[in-house]
Design brief:
9 helices, Rossmann fold, elongated, 44% helix, 289 residues, alpha/beta
């Protein structure tokens, strides 16, 4: 992990994402970029500019100038607050800021790709476009389109060094890559990774064969000493997941979004989001390309 992008809207939720990203960057010798996107209400969804008569155009330009000026002022204040936070906590992290104008998802994804970010850290809720549940329009759009993993933080989450990570697998070809990426992202911490599949139909044999294949993938490079593999029975996925996370004291949950995946379907529902809020656990999402 070398580059951490943090989209912000200056709400308490995004500020929490910033401080978490700073602590993570300090531990992993990474740099942080704060990105704020302010809307251009006079651009259509296909990014074509709406044209008006001269008077309306003048007022439009004045409004956009004010929006940009306000955004620059808030970003300057935020940058000062972040440097103050680093000084108070004896942290040193390279920090840059960026302002972009347009649609939030498009600009966040473009900004992450152009900067070649390794991970995007987002707060669960906030004002304006971020004032939605986790996996709302913006976060879900970023997860779908970003080239890198997205770390979503529940409200009031307080960063601590992770010890117990969990990767919930529904068995797909992307699992091995995601698990390796997860271990690489958090390699500076003494973590234990729980690779877990939730069996809801009591038919263990196919799942055991697939889990063994995952085990064999990491056998040759010695990383299996960091990983435990487990198949958990349960009738209701959310209940089984909640009980397992509590029993194992999981610090971070990782999943891979996948079309037609039961995990993706369950994590897109409000019930699962409420579970993550109550558990106060960050969620790291890989997007299967």
């Amino acid at each position: 992990m070398k580059k951490i992008l943090v989209p912000i809207d200056f709400s308490d939720y995004s500020i929490n994402a910033v401080t978490t990203a700073i602590r993570l960057a300090a531990d992993t010798a990474s740099e942080v970029r704060l990105l704020h996107v302010f809307d251009d209400p006079f651009v259509t969804h296909d990014m074509e500019k709406v044209t008006f008569n001269n008077e309306v155009t003048r007022r439009t330009e004045e409004l956009l100038h004010k929006m940009e000026t306000d955004a620059k002022s808030k970003m300057s204040d935020m940058e000062s607050d972040v440097y103050r936070f680093m000084q108070e906590n004896n942290l040193t992290v390279p920090l840059t800021v960026e302002l972009r104008r347009g649609f939030a998802v498009d600009q966040i994804v473009a900004g992450a790709r152009e900067w070649i970010a390794d991970v995007i850290v987002v707060g669960a809720r906030g004002h304006s476009r971020f004032e939605k549940m986790l996996f709302g329009t913006v976060t879900k759009g970023v997860i779908d389109d970003a080239h890198c993993p997205v770390l979503a933080l529940p409200a009031d989450f307080q960063w601590k060094h992770p010890k117990e990570l969990m990767y919930a697998t529904d068995f797909n070809d992307y699992d091995a890559y995601a698990i390796a990426k997860l271990l690489n992202l958090f390699q500076v911490y003494p973590v234990r990774l729980h690779v877990t599949h939730f069996n809801l139909d009591n038919n263990h044999l196919p799942d055991e064969e697939k889990m063994q294949a995952l085990h064999d993938t990491f056998q040759s490079d010695g990383r299996n000493n960091l990983i435990s593999y487990e198949i958990v029975d349960g009738k209701v996925l959310l209940s089984a997941l909640n009980e397992y996370m509590a029993a194992k004291d999981i610090d971070l949950l990782a999943v891979t979004t996948r079309k037609m995946s039961s995990l993706q379907r369950i994590f897109s529902k409000s019930a699962s989001i409420n579970l993550l809020y109550h558990a106060h656990k960050p969620l790291l999402v890989f997007h299967e390309k």
